[in-house]
Amino acid sequence: MHVVDAVHARSSIRAFLDTPVDDQVLRELLADAARAPSGGNVQPWRVYVVNGEAMTRLRDFLPTQPPIEPTEYDIYPKALTEPYRTNRFTVGEQMYALLGIPREDKAARLTQFARNGDFFGAPAALFCFVDRQMGPPQWSDLGMFLQTFMLLATERGLSTCAQEYWSVRHGAIRSFVGAPDDEMLFCGMAIGRADPDAPVNALRSERMPLDAWARFV
């Protein structure tokens, strides 16, 4: 697979099959993803993998924990301006349309949102933490690492969904994986094989035209 093919094939999957993912495959993907760019070669990512029996234990553990916690960072700016606000709104409306959930059905929308907490049925997941001493440049390194992992997973026939949802359950995840207090949870990621029959997996988020955000000087 060419890199450009993986870029266009990758999407955020929100319905997975329960087909197991081998630990060795995840080890190989992580090792390869660690070749992602990192300023000063700091390599700030700290990753905890949950798979197989550990995923079963995590699914049993989560209902015993607080359902929502205050986040340790702002997922979005508090007053998101245009065009960013519309971009975010549009993809949400596209997703709920595929699911047949109208805007006024708040209960159904909350139920769909809650599926984040089950990794959308994925059999494996990772959690990406970062040392609290790190700043925005190192957080950008996390993004490059995660993107590299997702493209490599696409090449191996796996699907993913990066989930900042877990920032509202950071205490539960920290407790389960045993992360130290000097590490902050950035996001989780569901990993598995996409359910080809799930309508939500047909979602392809729109991108603004090049001329809207790039200027050749």
Describe this structure in words.
- The protein has eight helices and four strands.
- With 217 residues, the chain is of the alpha+beta class.
- It has a single domain, classed as NADH Oxidase, CATH 3.40.109.
- It has a four-stranded antiparallel β-sheet with strand order 1-2-4-3, with helices on both faces.
- Helix 1 packs across helix 6 (136-155).
- The chain is globular, with a radius of gyration of 18 Å.
- The mean pLDDT is 96.
The 3D shape can be described as globular
The name of the CATH architecture is 3-Layer(aba) Sandwich
**CATH classification class:** Alpha Beta
How many individual helices?
A: 8
Mean pLDDT across all amino acids:
96
Low-confidence stretches: none
**Gap between N and C termini:** 33 Å
Defining key terms:
alpha+beta, 217 residues, 8 helices, NADH Oxidase
Brief overview:
This protein has a single domain, classed as NADH Oxidase, CATH 3.40.109. It is α+β, with helices and mostly antiparallel strands.
